[in-house]
Model the fold of this input.
Amino acid sequence: MRMILINSAEVLSMRPSFFIPFLFLLGIAAAAQADDMPAFNISIKSHHFSPATFEVPVDTRFRINVKNEDDTPEEFESQDLDFEKIIPPHREGFVYVRPLDAGKYHFFGDFHQDTAQGDLFAK
Done:
């Protein structure tokens, strides 16, 4: 994919007739890039993650889809990966994760830390 670099002065000087289609094309490019991104699905049930461990590729940006099957909200969090996301009961959410070096990365449910624990392994 070819990248287009534009500085902020160029964006501010664009005529509205050009600017709106430009934003539309950027949106399409971002959506196409997100569709090519690996995605991993996990669920929360009875305040446990399933799967509680999984593997992801190194040096690749990816998405984690989280389905909360519990009757209470959960905060999907990782200090290792620098994210936190509240997932309401019986809803789904997702987080994007930066490309990782090889290693083990911990995640947890902040509202139920005694049971909602997991790890992902970048290999």
User: Anything to note?
Assistant: Residues 9 and 106 are 41 Å apart (CA to CA). Helices lie at 8-13, 16-35. The beta strands are 39-45, 48-50, 53-56, 62-68, 74-78, 83-87, 92-97, 103-109, 117-122. The first strand starts at residue 39 and ends at 45.
